Amino acid sequence: MNQVATKTHVSSKPFLDVLNGRPNGNESDYIPFWFMRQAGRYLPEYRKLRASRNGFLDMAFDPKAASEITLQPIRRFGMDAAILFSDILVIPHALSQALDFVEGEGPKLDPIRDGAALSKLSFSGLESKLSPVYETISNVTAQLDDQTALIGFAGSPWTVATYMVEGSSSRDFINVKKMAYGDPELFSKLIDMLVEATAHYLIKQADSGVEALQLFDSWAGALDADEFKKWVIGPTKKIIDLVRDSHPDIPIIGFPKGAGYNYMSYAEETGVSALGLDSQVPVKWAARSLQPLMPVQGNLDPICLLTGGDTMKIAVEKIMEELSGGPFIFNLGHGIHKDTPLENVEALIKLLRP
Ligand code: CP3
To answer: What is the pTM of this model?
Structure first.
């Protein structure tokens, strides 16, 4: 497969340079890029591999399959960073909550709605369940070229808890909010468990070779400012402090999707090293108010990529105009949609690497 993008004029890993504040993305015209959910169903090579397997978890916990899937988009498109192929829900699975990915329906878990259900969670299987992920990281690290970085990740406690309490994807988060607002003591027990498991998991990922971490808080936008402080900022800060105790310099990108104005307190109070911007964040505001604090990453609407053509071109130009003057990594504002035509991804990369 041909590599669309070349990185021949830069000396190290441009993605890490931007995160580490080294002059590169901001002082040259080389803007590193990767796409959230770049490994997945829009790729024919992923669909082919998936058809021969027993579902998503079977692939995610098979180091050979997971390494191959991690590398698929890099071989085809030459992104500046690969992201480990796994899922944010491996943590509830490793804490022994039953989890299944039902084709076309998304994740299904045995919902945790009370203390009795919560007390069934256990750390005892954590290490053995997650160890294939660490093996995947070693495999990928051995195969990546010297200009492409490897990103590890986890879900943030709030977002992972929404799935654990609701038992599936949710529109209104009634059950998880009822627990957080009505029985904060019980909900804290769940969040504290997630903080501990997630910090451990991220530290082990860094031990195994990932060079940056991203915390996905996909449902951060469901909370008001006070609850956001309690369930997003607090637990995120705890995780970051724990990770930094053993890996003081590893860059950590926070992605509090939908946080709106709360992006500001998230940037100032959690200790993240960079911010993932969702598509709703106005780029002018981000350039003026967030980018002076730290590097930003984002934020093309994935549906602009799915639409392609001039719609996409205009949106990309606007993002570049506002954000390419400071430390910036180009990305989408959320995961790539499974129906995205490959030609549109190719066209986007041509815009980024003319
Ligand atoms: O390429 C990558 O970005 C790396 C792998 C990755 C996956 N999920 C693979 C996956 C990452 C980083 C995630 C994160 C994730 N998982 C999030 C946070 C980002 C976001 O999208 O908001 C969330 C909320 C999840 C939970 C999850 N996993 C859901 C709701 C679903 C079902 C919906 C869907 O898109 O299918 C999954 C399944 C999942 N995770 C797939 C992939 C490639 C699809 C599995 C398949 O059917 O092949």
So the answer is: 0.95
